[in-house]
Structure formats: C-alpha cells, structure tokens
Design a protein that fits this description.
There is one protein chain. Helices cover 9% and strands 36% of the residues. It contains 5 helices and 30 strands. The protein has helices at 2-16, 31-41, 73-76, 244-254, 277-284; strands at 56-61, 64-71, 85-93, 98-103, 113-118, 123-129, 137-139, 148-155, 158-166, 179-186, 197-204, 209-215, 229-230, 242-243, 288-294, 307-312, 315-322, 336-344, 349-354, 363-367, 374-378, 386-388, 397-403, 408-416, 429-436, 449-455, 462-468, 503-508, 511-518, 532-536. The protein has a 7-stranded antiparallel β-sheet with strand order 7-6-5-4-10-11-12, with no helix packed on it. The chain has a 6-stranded antiparallel β-sheet with strand order 22-21-20-19-25-26, with no helix packed on it.
Amino acid sequence: FIDLSLYYFCLETKKHHSTMKTRSLPLLLSPLTALLYITSLTNAQTSPACPSTLNNFVLLDESTVFYYALLPPTATGSNDPPNGILCGRVEHEGEGWISLAVAQTADEMVGGEAIIGLPDENSVLKYEMTGKSTNFVTPMAESMQTLWDESIVQEDGKTIMTFAKWLVEENELEIAEGRNDFLFASGSSNTLAYHAARMGISVDLMAGEWDVLTTTTSTEAAMMDETTTLTTTESAMTTDVTTIAAATTDIATTTEAPMMNDPTTEATIATSEAASTEAATTTDAIATTLTTTTIASEGLDCTVDFCENELTSGYLQRYKVNIPEGQDPENCEGCSILMELIFEGEAWLSIGFSEDGNMIGSEAVIGVPGGTPQKYIMNGYALNLVELLPEEQQTLTDAGITVNEDGQTVMAFTKLMSEPGEIEIVYGENRFLWAHGNDATLAHHGNNRAAFSLDLAAAGAAVAEEEVTDPTDPSVEVEEDSVNVPDAIQDPSGGQDCTVNFCDNELTTGFLQKYRINVPDGQDPETCDGCTIDMEL
C-alpha cells in the first residue's frame, strides 16, 4: 500500500510540476515501486527538449522579435492525448517586464492568458487576465504552472524571455497549430505595471505568417525622438509643421512674454491613483480665494499660431485650433486641437476635459515617458477607476511623449474637438484639468493638479482658478469660521474634554475621525513630555 501510494504521488508530481527535478524520487522508493515509476515515465506526458535553434520569427513591434518553433504531436511523441509544443524566445530591445498572451481576440486583453517575465524576480509564469488593471492580472494556480525551459535575462540593454508550453492544457485557451491571436506587452521598468507598449497580432504558427491587428506603440517610433515631426491631421489646416525640438526652442523664446503668476492651486482633479480627495476638502477650506490670471498669448489668433498658457511654474500648455477650410468654428465638423504640454523635469503628464471642473466623470489624455499618450475615463479617484477608453475611441493622432536633452518632458497630440460619446471641446470657453507626477511612474499626483477655464476663441481671456492659499503666509487673512480643524482638546461638536472622552470630527460624508489625547499624570498638555493620541478613522 505504501509503495503504491508513493508511486502515484510521483506520477502526480511529475504531471503537475514538469520542471521539477524528479529523477531522485525513485531513490526514496522500494525497488519494485522505483521500477514501476521509471517504466511509467516512458508512457507519461513528459517535457521534450526544444530545438537549439528557433527558425521561425514574428516582429511584435519595432523593438521586439518573437522567435519560435512549433513541435506537433508526432515530433513530441505525446500520444495520450496527442499534444504539441510551442517553444518560444521573446527578445526585446529595452529593459522591463515583457508578456506574451494567448487571446480570444487580438483586440481584447480580458479573458486572455499570458506568459509574463519579471526580471527582478527571475520568474516566468502563466497569468490569468480578468481585467485591465494590474489587480486583475494574477498568476494561475500552482498546478497550472507547467512551463519548462523558462528563463528571463537582461543583458546589453535587452530583455530576453524563453519558455516551452504544451499547446493543449486543461482549462486553458488552446494554441492551434494554425492561426492564433496573441497579445504582446512590455513595461518601462521591471515592476509589473501598466504597459508602455502593447500589440495585438494574428499568427499562423505553421505557415510563419502574421498580421498586426492592434497596437499602441509609437507609430514608426514617432515622438520617441525629440526631432520627430508633429503634423496636424489631413483635414486640418496645413500651416507650419512643428517638431518637438522646435517646440522646445519656441518655449525658450516665448517665456520672455508676460506669464501668469505662479499660484499654488487646489481643485478637484486626479488622473491616476488617488487618495482621500474628499477628505482633503477639509484642509482646502482653510482659505480659498478667486484669482484671475491671463494667458501669455494675448492678441494671437490661436487658429494660426500656437497660443500658450502657463498651468503652473515649469508646466506650459501650447495649443492651436485646426479649422478645416470652409468650416464655421462655432459649429465645426472635423475641427481638432493640437496640444503640447511641456514640463521642466521627467514626469507623467495629463490634461483633462471636464463639464463641471470635477475629476469624476471627466476624460483625460495621460502620457507616461516611454509609452504613448492615450485617452482615459475618470470613474473615481482610485487607480483602477481611471480606465482606458475602448480601443475604438483611441483616436488621437500624432501622439507621443518624450524627455528631451534639456530634461523636459514633452507630450503632444491632436484630438478631434467633437467625438461621439465624449466631452466636447468647443471654440469658446472650456473647463480643463491638469496634473503631473513627480517622476515617470504613474502614481498619485499629490498637489500637482488643478482645474481651470480656457476660452479657445479668445487668447488672453481671463482664466479663473481656485487658489488655496497658505494659512501660514502672514500676508493672507484666514477667517476663523472657515477653519474645520478641531481644537487639540475641545471636541468641535460639544465641548467635551478630549483627554477623557473620545471626540468626533466628521472629515466628510461617511468618513469620521475619533480621537483622544492621553496626558500622563503631572504633565501640562501644552508642553507635554510623553503625551500620545489615540485615533480612529
């Protein structure tokens, strides 16, 4: 009985963990069981070796090649059931995580199954993709991790992932010997996060033929070099052609024009992972004033020349409205806006379009260096609620983001002003939202965001901004009744002694703060040594 139990244990171990070194297992068994086990290996579905040279290849994008060999069941000797093997090697020019997924369709990530290589963890595993955020990209169960000959290395600026996989596996998408849909993606770092580039591709593995179906990589590497030309759409005005390098030069020459003041702004906008913005309104209420500033492009015709708007210190917006010949700008069909954002430093950038100046419900173009700017919908403050618009709505043209030799991040794109199902940009007053990060990793923007009004038809028009002033500035008068921060000892709702009882402070609807000050015996709470605070949220 013990011999038979160990025998079947060995078989199951070999079945589910084909990469395990199981040759030593017979040494644990009696001679009879060892003989049974060794005999079974000749009949079981083992892991054949891949050829030393992978002769077939697919160009996944301008910097990535997928080399592969397809071994049909006749070559693998797997007859129970018949099964073939896909041997693969992905070579990517750049350092970052890489992924190759089997997909139901090449334009849909959700429902696909990916092989993802993470260099820092030295792992190549199979993942399920049940959603578009990283929270929904999860490793398959241990029993389904059946890859072998898997590895991921980085050398000379290149990332290389290898693997071997059965074509047919239980409860997984089948890889056909003929045509299949695959998704390739790569990251801008070794940490699994939102992809810097992705591509959907249809491949006939047997014939070695492929068709690119979807892509969000830079078209012909556009905008990835600071000298790449930015053009307007065919239907737009065919005036001056602008390059990123020229845009940088223009900035240097136009900054001598009077720019708006550098207000410290606070408004309700977030374009990525957001924190308790609702709670932040408690602090925002300390002092709020309305300021009026002016665009630096007063007197310019923004349908002919680039107009400029300094969003905040070191963050410039340039734009030009493209009106097709014969169109009325007030009721324009095919009008577009060419927009550039120039930031002093390396960071992700965002410009949003809003109907009311609030983040939720707004739409934004977000760009991360190393990737391509795309359109998003803001369904909430959390990162997983900042979602890519569907592929058919990714209609930006001439879109790119780069960091130039002066250390500036430059994002540019052309967007149609009126698109079905999206917030319209009018040739008049609009509500916009700006934000930027502290580096090139998409994360919470902190205070680097604001809402503003901009009249595209009137360069130099007043721009109303909500400015949250610093209450520590002696030049600012702070009204006492605007303060929503309770006294250190007194409860704001009823004069309780907060050194004895818990006091309450409603931060915002549905978010309550409870606290109590602990003052050691004999200590003065004003100059206390060892005082503590108990706090509950």
